[in-house]
Specification:
Oligomer: single chain
Helix content: 10-25%
Strand content: 35-45%
Largest sheet: 8 strands, mixed
Number of helices: 6
Radius of gyration: 18 Å
Distance between the termini: 24 Å
Number of domains: 2
CATH topology of the largest domain: 2,3-Dihydroxybiphenyl 1,2-Dioxygenase, domain 1
CATH architecture of the largest domain: Roll
Length: 294
Amino acid sequence: MTDADTKTDTDDRAETAQTGSKLNGPTLDHVALASYRAWDNVVRFCYHLGARWLGGPPDGEPTPFYFSQVRMAGGTKLEFLQPIPGEGSDFLRRFLHRSGPGPHHLTFKVPDIRAAMAEANAGGYDIVNEQLDSPTWKEAFLHPKQSHGIVIQLAQPGGDADWDDPLPLPPSLQADLPALTCVKHLVADLDAATKLFSGPLGMTVADEGTDQEGDFTVLRQGPWNLRLIKPALDPYRQWLAERPGRVLQLQMEVDEIAVIPDLRAVGFDGNPAWELSPDVNQGTRVLLSRRSRR
């Protein structure tokens, strides 16, 4: 374990002490990104941006699709998905054919999945593809037609659901883990989307109003924000089109900007910021800023 990992683990324990157990209620565990080349995501987010590799499929165990995860500051993770030959990857192939590479789902861990499913049902949300037999990972999904254009996975981990200690990847260009600060999500119905994320998914409304992008609600949970936007800008409206919702970008903070290739300088709230466009980042737009050190 590096000094940076030790520091981040200490920060995570402090965060948990301030906010309570990470399974007191629904807690964002990871944002899943689908692409045809998941390893390119690993290079981008681990080597360029500084995320810590957690692992992929166990050696020798067949899996219906490729998956791997990386860790960021505060315990939030990214998951990378890639279809492989076989019927188990059909859902990923359909997604990639329909939408192209990019954000696929948000996973919220819950302490009691049956209670979480009941609360979702009581709120008028249908549960699909529930799988409750595994002692280490029980899961159920909200369909993106009801969850505003992004699949929502509810998951209850068991005692052995954590990753084994993986072999380290080569050193990153960053000195410390990146921080996911905000997920920006365009929605057609702002009130309904706010109801979902502040209800069954346990987020807290931190701000709401109107700015140049449109009407918005900011919801908070742990170290990250979700910014829901009913778009006013023509490019945003055209990109959303007739969909109920679509993830626009991930906002992240890193220590070193100059070492990251493919960046484009942009303005953001009067502060310097840089963008990784979907064209150079496996379908996911990332807005980067330099982490301020106290």
